[in-house]
Amino acid sequence: MFNPVFGIRTPTTDTNHMLRLYELMEHWSKVMEIGATPPVDFYPFLKWVPERFLGHWVTRATEVKKKMDSLYHDVVETVIKRRQSMGPRDSVIDRILDRQEKLALTKHQLYFLGGIAMEGGSDTTASGILAFMKAMTCFPDIQRKAQAEIDAIIGENRSPTWSDYARLPYVSQVVKESMRWRPIGGLGVPHALSEDVWFEGMFLPRGSIVFFNVWGLHQDKRYYPDPDRFDPDRFSGRTLLAPEYAISSEYESRDHYNYGVGRRLCPGIHLGERNLFIGMAKLLWAFSFEKAVDANGQTIEPDFNYETGYSEGFIVCTNDFPAKITPRSGERVETIMREFDQAKVEIFSGFE
């Protein structure tokens, strides 16, 4: 996300700004977890209770704010200095700076506009892909079916791209089922009612906070029969992009609810959908995912139980699990290296 938002490349996972981001996100997710902080919005008197009785929530939130202020300041100022010496790039922040005279954003607004965009597409996408990798490890028949579709269309001389989306419907179904089967945000993002609402005999006054139970919706047998089974075929014939279903008035046709609902729908839904498809399609094209074997030759079964095999928090991610991941062929390895060399010349060089 550093690239599209700031035009800054992250060449390795231990790049300084990447390490700072994931340290920040780890602490931020814990602060944002339901129940991790007192409900001061509902009961304002709680802000007068010494924080030591409430898990030191103020101190924890303040520490996260300091990390945000520092990282967001540094990356935006890097963009500003780069523009002075090299001119603008095609990034979100560059485009905003091009219109700064009209927008008149404060430095604080500019820093957090970029920071929030970067946050929203970082751990969410990574968590989604890890859930997919665990599913492919646990359900090899589905993996092979998706790979057969890719092989028939793509071959070994190139990897899948976004332009292949329409020709890989089963892969699209795998992406959707990965998002439904183990949703990234179990309780979604809280919403506040803008008007009084009656719902199933209950009166909900304007301003009420409503939690959007994504996990519960994805387990609803009326819409997803046998919901705990990983079954991409439940999306057969429903392979439009998630934004198409999200804006439809026919709520029963919705594919999944990871991107939220209504006016607070995730603004990065289009980018997220493309990132997930490209990432998962390339992984299926390139690698085989198998269950690991212990020292005694016994197969190690990954834990895909939602309660024991996944982390708790605002963002839900699989716990570490053993797996055997191998390239599917030597030809694919050669293609990966060739495309990497090509990307270094055509793409990465623009960020050096």
UniProtKB/TrEMBL annotation:
Its cofactor is heme. One of its GO terms (molecular function) is oxidoreductase activity, acting on paired donors, with incorporation or reduction of molecular oxygen. Gene3D superfamilies: Cytochrome P450. The keyword Iron applies. This is Cytochrome P450 oxidoreductase. The keyword Signal does not apply. Keywords: Heme, Iron, Metal-binding, Monooxygenase, Oxidoreductase.
